[in-house]
Every structure is written in structure tokens, then in C-alpha cells.
Amino acid sequence: MSANFNGTGNLGNTPTLRHVRVEDEERPVCEFRVFFDRSKPDGEGGYEDIGGFWLTVNIWGKRAEAAARHLAKGARVKVEGRLRQDSWEDKETGEPRVEIRLDADDVTLALSRIEQIRFMPKAETSERDDAAAA
After folding, report:
1. From the centroid of its chain, how far is CA 73?
2. What CATH number should be reported for the domain holding residue 11?
3. Each residue of 10-26: pLDDT tens digit?
4. Which candidate in 2, 18, 52, 74 could, as Cys together with 37 as Cys, close a disulfide (CB 3.0–4.6 Å)?
């Protein structure tokens, strides 16, 4: 069973795009870290930071390539996806390690931090079908 998650936060690093073999094909995956902040009204019209947490985010396929092109450290994003727990043994200490990761279905830029947008030409029908399958 997976836990659905959606949250808003800031990228803590420049996204990394790599290609991994999945069965018989190479698939693009983009990885980055997001700090999901928590705040509450401060009573004076502003907000007070009350903590937050970091997650490593992975997004696959055509969305991975788009994320690598458009996202940058510090970008404010909304991320939707499923939480997953990874476990491994530390190579140096032999200690067990655990990390919660987010497999993203979608990443959206916060409009308040965008200076300019340029739209791509409308996709042909076959391109839309390919994107939907990814």
C-alpha cells in the first residue's frame, strides 16, 4: 500500500537527470530535494515558520526531462505523488539506513515566483498519446 502525498516547498538543490535501465529500456528519472515548510499565522498579517521536513523526490519519463530543464535550486513547487520507504546498509559503518522518498506524479511551479513563461507549440496527436503513456 502506498501513501499519497501532496505538499508545497522549495527545491534545495539543482535537479539531477539520469537514465536508468528498466527492463529492456532506458528511462529518464529526475531527482531533487524539497524542503516542505510549515507555517502558521503570526497574528500580525504574516506567517511564522514552525518547522518542516526534507524529502528526496523522483519523477520519471517526459516529466523528468521537463523538470530537469525548468526547475532550479530555490524554486517554489507543489509536488504530488506517493511516499515510499527505502532501506539499505551503510557501506562504511554497516548500519541499517532508512529514507522516505516521494515518487512524484506531478510537479508544479508556484506562480508567485515566475517572471516569464513561453509556451511550446501545440503537440500533435501522436505526441499527446506518447506523453499520456509516460
Report:
1. 12
2. 2.40.50.140
3. 999 999 999 999 899 99
4. 52
Residue 18's alpha-carbon distances to 11, 14, 28, 65, 68, in angstroms, are 18, 13, 6, 9, 10
Residue from 9, 6, 2 nearest 110 by CA: 9
**How much is the pTM?**
0.78
Q: How far apart are CA 79 and CA 73, in angstroms?
A: 15
Domain that holds residue 9: 3-133
Number of domains the chain is built from:
1
State the cell numbers at 51.
518547522
**pLDDT at residue 9, as a whole number:** 96
Element (H, E) at 10: strand 3-11
The strand pairing partners of 35, in sequence order, are 10, 54
